[in-house]
Amino acid sequence: MFGTAMTYIVFILCIIQFSIFLYQIYIYFERPNDTSRLNYLFITCSFLTYNILSGLFYDSNSSINVVIQGGLAYFSGIQLYIVFTWFLYTEYNIQPLKYFSIKIGTIIGALALIFLLVLPLYVTQDIDFARKTFMYALIVYLIFYLFNITYLIYTLYNSKEKQNIENLKYRKKLKIGYTSLIFITILPIITLLGDFQEVEHSLVNIAYFVILFQFFGDYFYSVESEYKILNELGFNENTSKDLKTIEDLYNDKILQKFKDFKLTPRQREITLFILQGFSYQEISEATYITEGTVTKHASDIFKKVGVKNKEELLLFFGKNSIY
To answer: Domain 234-317, CATH 3.40.50.2300 — does that match?
Structure first.
């Protein structure tokens, strides 16, 4: 397409992901302290990079040196693995595996790219030979990686009780994350079989659209939850027409300095309830988490703010209502 090796399917995927990337930038700047939105922004950028570079190269009709083309094409796949692993560890609160951390994965990926792809390609000028050498090594590494991450996710999944709504959401996220991982892991196998760009990109990008589905699910869930919480706190269309989200509360002078404490979205919600005089049991009922979890969040909030208990927190922000 356009005189390049990129097919129409890959081009359409790039257009779609670029549009989503712009939209995610917009919603990220709505709330820059929300690290989850930033995580999804990075993973979109990573998939877009993969589709562009892997879609354009390798092109036998291009005037660009074959070594540069091969390096860029397979770099796009390596960075996708690294960023997706980082995404799994960060977004799903998974403790990185000892021998499969981001640092070790980056080092192994870089060494494999240089010594098993670029150098053989430079010496032989044979893209098929270099590709097979690189892919065989990558497949062996990914087998060990997939075995270990499968066991870890399986353990995490079974450690969460089904009765708790938060745990049910987490278990669902683990399923989605693992499904996406499977689709990405088959990438080197398809590449080893030959240059099937449409099949390769279609399957790999299923992983992206699966986690994108999760992203928008979480996004709309948070919007709905915030709307409910605002109603619980006494805000509605009659009392505050300009108030749209929990974040709007931080424009209040009393809570302006609250931004500096870098609380998570859940901690912010709980803090707002505490400032309104809600008990831990009432907060538990309003947010659908256990009272023990509320207590744990409150303890973390006290540490970040620098107070010892709920009473000191109320004094710190003043005893008056925030609305």
So the answer is: yes
